[in-house]
Design brief:
The structure holds three protein chains of three kinds. Chain B has eleven helices and no strands. Chain B is an all-alpha fold. Chain C has a six-stranded mixed beta sheet with strand order 6-7-8-3-9-10, with helices on both faces. In chain C, strands 2-1-4-5 form a four-stranded antiparallel beta sheet, with helices on one face. Classes of the chains: A alpha/beta, B mainly alpha, C alpha/beta.
């Protein structure tokens, strides 16, 4: 393998990892082609791991593997994924249903496709709560309003009874985050969750995720194609290219001491054409 | 596109069947072993060396009548389709470009025409204007026009709102340039599909009309007319209607098969992509 | 207004809709772009940035104001005058999504020379002229026989840029030219655009992402709710933003170095902006 995970990260876990991905290889069962060539990371409670790569690099497939929703013809054929102490390869369908939402949850790029356009958004989240927590209708509604408030939606009561087309992209993504954290998961995967949003709204969502992590100890996996987005809130960053981890280290290490050419390209793009070029002296002391 | 249609087995069968029928229409009268109008005393004969398909109630040779009758039926069907094309497709494309008044008027006219049952109206009009095939075909053609109108309008509308047309406009393209270089190529496939299926419909209509005794004057042979007269002698020759009926069915079926084949090869880029992907595993599996 | 201005927009106002539904999309926009200058027009969804570009190209009528392109006042131009102006190829436009802006059924070579064919240049000559631009966008001539769908996103966007270049325009407007590309291609396209600016072409970037074009823009114009709230040299807009919206925008752009430090600052700016 071209990479070696920094021993400092994997060998001395601060706390028990809620999600650990160990040397996972994913391949296409039909063609036999390997798509992800070994990816490893440990996610402890309250930590944030970032995965950076182009579309098609295998970052989404890795997330899907962790959620147990790989497309039919793909399989994890080497390595292991452990979720809150369970090896996911041994989980039954029923056990998965129990874990999704209450242990691991996810938000994706296009929020509107995950909600039914003909039902108000509030009742859709209430449904999740009623099933997961077995509470009464009334109580579920109160909890949804509480959730909508916690994702900083300005007017929870009116959002509750609105339809998807009445909400902006940023508001929809907040609603989806509210639904994703409804059953108090330990891990939330945000896969390109801010890609389709305007810059200001993107910052609002990233701030919200940082806020949730601080308040609830939620562990996050943030997946993006932009290194700068990941750098906003991650403790640890993996850079993937064509299914291969080319860089893995603490955020500061990756930003200030990149080893691989590809990481250097990502950084130089920001330095040459991004805002970094104009900002006053970089704050090296963070490193 | 023709080459791609012929690459499909269904396309080859359809084109083969239709060219055989067209050849029949052109050379049918010349191939006929007997004079199709000559009556003999050998009435309602069974199949024999002299009369390969027997004779009808006036002693006329059935095979000769089928061959001679093919032209009227097929030419009629093509006439119907061409009339429908001219009164439908051209206004359909223009409705997108010629302004709101033209658009509104043609749309309302089409709504009206589509509500009329074409066979009944054709019968009614011939009853009013006298028993002529031309009038009947004209009426049916006009009443089938809305199909072409809607199909070509929908295709033209999609193209008109596309960015590549806007890009051409920004480069100073005229309306006729846009229609010639962008619209025609997009509108042609759906129109060909409609054309093939309308020829099939036209064929049924011509056959039905002549079955009802409208259009063609009695001694002249047509497939529909033969079917009708054969039915009167069902107790003597129960197998007689089979020959014209089979020809009608084969022609209509071949038209619909051709329409399907055209639709298959002119599918949108996404479908072509999917089929290309589906083939890949097989190719690799064989390697 | 400088003599070398390729584009002058003065007090532009655009309305959409009729009667009671009529609403103002752009209000009092004034902006001049000189040749060889790159200006980034930054605004969020619904800010009117695309409408501004469309109004400049004559695709959207405006209710007040003046637009001058290459010395010619087009404010009251007829359809025919617009067509003649566009045919000269002085202004070109690059769309965000090259998959949709190139005809999917035509080999890219045909799309590439279309602006020249529209001018009435014979096919062979047009092809020869277009070929001269391939090197500038680092494009292999062999790719030209393919359909747009058979090219990678980066190759396709470079075809779109080459298509905008073949008429040797003085002004190119680009709508999110790099946001759909991967980093390698983003850098490549930005390099190409940099070269263009140096050769004297005026560039107007329309984008929601200040970070994606800042490095190439001499000046930044910030569009907020249909008004230009800030126009100035890139460095000063980024380091000393005047308007609250611009401050929030600058603070929101993800950068490698700033990271989470600005969270509380953003919080207070949001409160200020929505107050």
């Amino acid at each position: 393998m071209a990479f070696a995970a920094s021993p400092a990260i994997t060998d001395s876990p601060v706390a028990e990892a809620v999600l650990s991905v160990r040397d996972v290889h994913i391949r296409d069962q039909v063609t036999g082609r390997e798509i992800v060539h070994g990816i490893s990371f440990e996610l402890e409670p309250g930590k944030v791991v970032g995965i950076v790569g182009e579309s098609g690099s295998g970052k989404t497939l890795t997330c899907r593997a962790a959620l147990g929703i790989l497309p039919d013809q793909l399989e994890v054929y080497a390595g292991s994924i452990t979720l809150a102490g369970h090896d996911i390869a041994e989980l039954s369908v029923k056990q998965w249903t129990g874990l999704r939402g209450s242990t691991i949850s996810a938000v994706f790029q296009d929020p509107s496709s995950y909600l039914n356009p003909s039902i108000q958004v509030g009742p859709q989240i209430a449904e999740v709560i009623r099933v997961k927590k077995k509470v009464r209708r009334r109580e579920a509604r109160d909890q949804v309003l509480q959730l909508l408030r916690s994702v900083r939606l300005r007017n929870p009561e009116s959002v509750y009874s609105q339809y998807t087309y009445e909400l902006s992209g940023g508001m929809l993504q907040r609603v989806l985050i509210a639904a994703a954290i409804a059953a108090d998961p330990k891990v939330l995967i945000a896969d390109e969750a801010t890609t389709a949003l305007d810059v200001i709204v993107q910052a609002e969502i990233l701030d919200l995720l940082a806020d949730l992590r601080e308040r609830t100890g939620l562990a996050l996996v943030v997946v993006a194609h932009d290194l700068a987005v990941v750098a906003q809130l991650c403790d640890e960053v993996l850079v993937i290219r064509q299914g291969e981890v080319v860089e893995h280290g603490t955020t500061a290490d990756v930003l200030y001491r990149p080893r691989h050419e590809y990481t250097k390209l990502l950084i130089s793009e920001h330095e040459q054409y991004g805002l970094d070029r104009f900002l006053d002296a970089p704050q090296r002391e963070r490193a | 596109m023709i080459r791609r249609v012929l690459a499909l087995p269904a396309g080859r069968i359809a084109v083969g069947t239709l060219s055989a029928i067209v050849l029949l229409a052109i050379f049918g009268s010349a191939l006929a072993p007997h004079n199709p109008l000559a009556t003999t005393s050998a009435q309602l004969r069974h199949v024999s060396g002299g009369h390969l398909l027997g004779t009808d109630y006036l002693g006329r040779d059935t095979l000769s009548r089928l061959l001679a009758g093919s032209r009227a039926s097929i030419v009629g069907a093509i006439e119907v389709a061409l009339i429908a094309f001219f009164v439908g497709a051209i206004p359909g494309i223009l409705s997108v470009y010629l302004g709101r008044v033209f658009e509104w008027l043609t749309l309302r006219l089409v709504d009206t025409l589509i509500a009329l049952p074409f066979l009944l109206v054709a019968v009614a009009v011939t009853a009013l204007l006298g028993n002529g095939m031309t009038v009947a075909l004209l009426v049916v053609g006009v009443l089938l026009g809305p199909g072409f109108y809607r199909i070509s309008r929908a295709a033209a509308l999609t193209v008109a709102r596309s960015q590549y047309v806007e890009a051409a406009q920004i480069s100073g393209a005229s309306l006729s340039w846009i229609v010639r270089s962008h619209v025609v190529s997009k509108v042609l496939p759906p129109i060909s599909v409609t054309m093939a299926s309308t020829v099939g419909t036209g064929f049924v209509v011509v056959s039905s009309l002549s079955f009802l005794g409208i259009g063609v004057q009695p001694p002249a042979p047509t497939w529909g007319g033969m079917l009708s007269s054969d039915l009167n002698y069902l107790s003597y020759q129960p197998w007689a209607p089979v020959a014209p009926a089979l020809l009608i069915i084969a022609t209509v079926w071949a038209c619909n098969l051709l329409a399907d084949a055209i639709r298959d090869v002119s599918g949108d880029a996404g479908r072509v992509f999917v089929s290309a992907r589906a083939k890949r595993p097989l190719a690799q599996g064989g390697a | 207004m400088s003599a070398s201005a390729v584009l002058e927009v003065e007090d532009l106002e655009v309305h959409y809709g009729l009667g009671r539904k009529r609403r103002r999309v752009l209000d009092g926009i004034s902006l001049a772009v000189a040749s060889g200058e790159a200006v980034g027009v930054i605004g969020e969804t619904g800010s009117g940035k695309t409408t501004l570009a469309r109004a400049v190209l004559g695709l959207v009528p405006f209710s007040r104001g003046r637009v001058v392109i290459d010395g010619q006042d087009v404010s009251n131009a007829s359809a025919r005058q617009w067509r003649d102006l566009r045919r000269r190829g002085v202004v070109q436009y690059v769309f965000q999504d090259s998959l949709r802006s190139l005809d999917p059924d035509l080999p890219v070579a045909k799309s590439l020379i279309e602006p020249l064919l529209i001018q009435g240049i014979p096919r062979a000559e047009a092809a020869a002229r277009a070929r001269a631009f391939l090197d500038r966008v680092h494009l292999d001539a062999e790719l030209l026989d393919r359909l747009p769908g058979a090219l990678s996103g980066g190759q396709r966007q470079r075809v779109a840029v080459a298509r905008a270049l073949v008429t040797e325009p003085k002004l190119i407007m680009l709508d999110e030219p790099v946001s759909a590309l991967d980093s390698a291609n983003r850098v490549l396209v930005l390099e190409i655009l940099k070269g263009l600016r140096e050769s004297g072409v005026a560039l107007v970037f329309i984008s929601h992402d200040l970070g994606s074009v800042a490095g190439l823009a001499d000046r930044i114009a910030v569009l907020y709710q249909g008004e230009l709230v800030e126009v100035g040299p890139t460095r000063s807009v980024i380091n000393n933003p005047g308007h609250v919206y611009t401050r929030l925008l600058v603070d929101s752009v993800p950068t490698l170095r700033s990271a989470a430090a600005k969270r509380s600052e953003r919080e207070s700016l949001r409160a200020l902006l929505h107050a």
